[in-house]
Every structure is written in C-alpha cells, then in structure tokens.
Amino acid sequence: MNSEELEINLPAGTSSEIVDEYKADTKWMYPYISNDELCKTHDISQICNEERKRRMHLAINHQMHPSNYRDFLLKKYFDSHMPIKWLALVADVSMPTAANHYTGSILLNHLVEHKKSLFQTLFIETNQIDYHMWLQISRIKYFGEADSLQIAVGDVIVGHSWIKKYFKEEDHSCHYGLGKTIITDCGIPAVEFPPTNSIAIDLPQVKIISNYNRHDDYIAEISYPDY
C-alpha cells in the first residue's frame, strides 16, 4: 500500500507528524481492549473482532524496510543455544509450497523482543527484532492444550523460538530466522487498567483472549497431528 493512499484514523487533533510516523511504520499500536469493555458486553467475540479490525491499520506495516538488526540480535541467541521470547502482529499467511514443507508460513509484523511484562512489551518497549518476519507453520510444535488454534490478521501473537541459521544464495550470506517454536498466546489483549483516581504501583495486568470466535475471518487454523 502506498503511504499517500493510506488513511490513518486517529483522534481529532492528532498532529500530522504522528500520522506520518504511522504511515512510515516507525510508530504502531497493537490492538487491545480494556476489562471495562469486557464487563459491558455479553459477546466477547464481537468486541475482539471489532477491535482487531479497527486497529489493524495502526499495526500492520505499510512500507518495505531493509533488515539489518535481525541477524545481529538472533545470532546471539543462536550462538548461546537459547530461545528468544517475542511478540508480534499477525499480518498475512503464505500458501503451502515445497520450500516450506507444504504447510505455509505466517507473516509477523513489528516483531519485538518480549523481555519483561506483557504490558511493557505491548505499550512501552519499541525495540524491534524486525519490521516483518515469516514463521513457518511446520516449526510450531506446541500452542497450548486446545486441539486447534485459529489465527486471524490483526491478532497479537506471542511465542518462544529457537533460532535457525540459513544461507541465502542471492547475497551469499548466512541469516537467522525463527526455528522450532512454542506459541504461548494468540488473540486480542485484554488490559486491566487501574482506576483513574488511584496510583498505579504495578504495571496493569494483561491477558490475551485467544479462544474468541473469528467466524470466517481467520487465515490459518493449526492442529496437532493424530499421533
């Protein structure tokens, strides 16, 4: 999408500089709902779907960006044989091909390193691993106790991944990507904000609602093999 064609709907009075930051992908806002909103509705799926679609354009990348920092960061995890904990926004899915073992891949936007609390990662920490990265679905080995998991564009997804090293013929260089992966959450974050007349000592609690009904709007559904 061309930045001149992109329509960013922000509150009245928002400066043009901030709008330009969203268009350039240097600023983004993951979707979320408050616990107060949940208490006011009997249809959790409806409010999750509405929020996911409403904020989608504030979180998905709209430009192409070169990637340099990813390999530098992921190499450290690869060399230390440690998994990385990350958070991202689901942006798309690729069709199955022989190259990805006929399972397809999930496109992650605004992939960030998840170091501290979920609230900090969602709203405060802005250090990206990369603007976008593909996660091969066959590398997802566990996603919780449910038999299956639906994934929609606009969902916030959290995972732990071991790092995989690979060689690209086009630039004759080694690169690093997400290998074996555990998905810990995928859905819409619900945030428990403190009352407006209180002093918040601790960061607000966040729980990701993953089992809401995405109806026919999901792009992938993963399940465990029969064995």
Give a verbal description of the structure.
The chain is an alpha+beta fold. 21% of the residues lie in helices and 36% in strands. The chain is built from 5 helices and 10 strands; from the N terminus they run H-E-H-H-H-E-E-H-E-E-E-E-E-E-E. The chain has helices at residues 16-23, 35-39, 44-59, 69-80, 118-123; strands spanning 33-34, 84-93, 105-113, 128-136, 140-142, 148-152, 156-168, 173-192, 205-209, 218-223. The strands form 2 sheets. Strands 1, 2, 3, 4, 5, 7, 8 and 9 form an 8-stranded mixed beta sheet that branches. Strand 7 (156-168) and strand 8 (173-192) form a beta hairpin. The longest helix has 16 residues, at 44-59. The termini are far apart.
Core attributes:
227 residues, alpha+beta, 5 helices
Break the fold down into its secondary structure elements and pairings.
Layout: H1 16-23, E1 33-34, H2 35-39, H3 44-59, H4 69-80, E2 84-93, E3 105-113, H5 118-123, E4 128-136, E5 140-142, E6 148-152, E7 156-168, E8 173-192, E9 205-209, E10 218-223
Parallel strand pairs: 1-8, 5-8
Antiparallel strand pairs: 2-3, 2-7, 3-4, 6-10, 7-8, 8-9
